[in-house]
Specification:
CATH superfamily: Rhodopsin 7-helix transmembrane proteins
CATH topology: Rhopdopsin 7-helix transmembrane proteins
Structural class: mainly alpha
Helix content: over 70%
Strand order of the largest sheet: 1-2
Largest sheet: 2 strands, antiparallel
Radius of gyration: 22 Å
Number of domains: 1
Order of helices and strands: HHHHHHHEEHHHHHHH
CATH class: Mainly Alpha
Number of strands: 2
Shape: globular
CATH architecture: Up-down Bundle
Oligomer: single chain
Length: 340
């Protein structure tokens, strides 16, 4: 993220108009760490140890949880910085690193969701091709590429996070220089590359899925689709306000409207912390989605939930084998709809 998902200065040095927003941001940050860090580790443990055969959706969920747990490790550093009264005590390298990892997490999250959506779309429109492409080697290559792209796209934030001095207290904040070009570029770049383009792709994938279901006159959704739709909805809910603030700041800087820029600056601490909370919300969604398994499976309930995504793929393969001898239009509909 261009501005960290926390206030950019200790509360004692935050201007009065932004102090309430900054305090709320701190509260959200505390909640995100307390809920999200152990929650995401539990998701990784459930997938790794409690799911015998992992589907593509299952592995992408684990990748997303690992990325979220990694970025939430920065929360204690930020809380010390914001509440300790001594400014940033961890050096310039750590300042750049934690903001850089926050930006990487944003890209990894949305692009992982994009891969999930593409997998669902391919399963409906090209079920036989989807079956051939769903190999561990291909998925590993995609995940490595996803992380590499995220690291590259986050490089601008790494260059803009020096330690600055404010009242003899070191501040870990952005420095765009004297002009507005860097600020406009940074906010516009991450909104386009980290939200508008990938989210448009995701919506397009599900538009194709819905259209195919209507064509087939079949309304049932599978476990994978429901789970992915929950993840997509949560990401949009928590990240849209942050990118609205980015657009406000860009438009204010471009038009010279200081009132718009001030409004964006005042709302940014809370809304960036709200975006940070997106790293904590997915385990909560999984608990609700898998609540029917809790009584029977105990701590393994999340493994049961994720195994449901794998059972859909097995059903698809069985139907494909059973009907391959007498191919016809019904094969396509049965296989593709059960893959969803």
């Amino acid at each position: 993220m261009a501005s960290t998902a926390t206030p950019s200065a200790p509360l004692a040095l935050t201007p009065a108009p932004q102090r309430a927003s900054a305090a709320l941001g701190v509260a959200i940050l505390v909640l995100a760490f307390v809920v999200g860090f152990p929650g995401n580790l539990f998701v990784v443990w459930s997938v790794w140890w409690r799911v015998k055969k992992r589907s593509v959706t299952c592995l992408l969920v684990m990748n997303l949880a690992a990325a979220d747990a990694l970025v939430l490790l920065s929360a204690p550093l930020f809380l010390r910085y914001l509440l300790g009264g001594r400014g940033w005590e961890f050096g310039a390298a750590a300042c750049k690193l934690v903001h850089y990892l926050s930006s990487v997490n944003m890209y990894v999250s949305i692009y992982s969701i994009g891969l999930m959506s593409a997998d669902r779309c391919l399963a409906v429109t090209r079920p036989f091709l989807a079956h051939r492409l769903r190999t561990k080697r291909k998925l590993l290559g995609l995940l490595l590429g996803l992380w590499a792209i995220s690291f590259v796209l986050s490089l601008p934030i790494k260059q803009l996070m020096p330690i600055s001095a404010n009242r003899s207290v070191p501040i870990c904040s952005q420095d765009h220089g004297s002009g507005v070009e860097h600020r406009v570029f940074q906010y516009l770049f991450e909104t386009v590359m980290g939200f508008l383009l990938p989210f448009t792709f995701i919506v397009g994938c599900y538009g194709v899925v819905v259209n195919r279901l209507r064509t087939a006159m079949f309304q049932k959704k599978g476990q994978s689709s429901r789970l992915i739709l929950l993840i997509v909805g949560a990401f949009g809910l928590f990240w849209l306000p942050y990118h609205v603030i980015n657009v406000m700041e860009v438009s204010g800087e471009a038009s010279g409207d200081e009132a718009v820029v001030r409004a964006a600056d005042q709302g940014r601490p809370t809304l960036t912390a709200f975006a940070y909370f997106s790293s904590a919300v997915n385990p909560i969604l999984y608990v609700f989605a898998g609540s029917s398994h809790i009584r029977a499976a105990g701590l393994s309930f999340m493994g049961r939930l994720f195994e449901g995504t794998n059972s859909e793929s097995r059903t698809t393969r069985r139907r494909r084998k059973r009907r391959s001898g007498n191919a016809g239009p019904s094969i396509f509909f049965h296989v593709s709809l059960n893959s969803l």
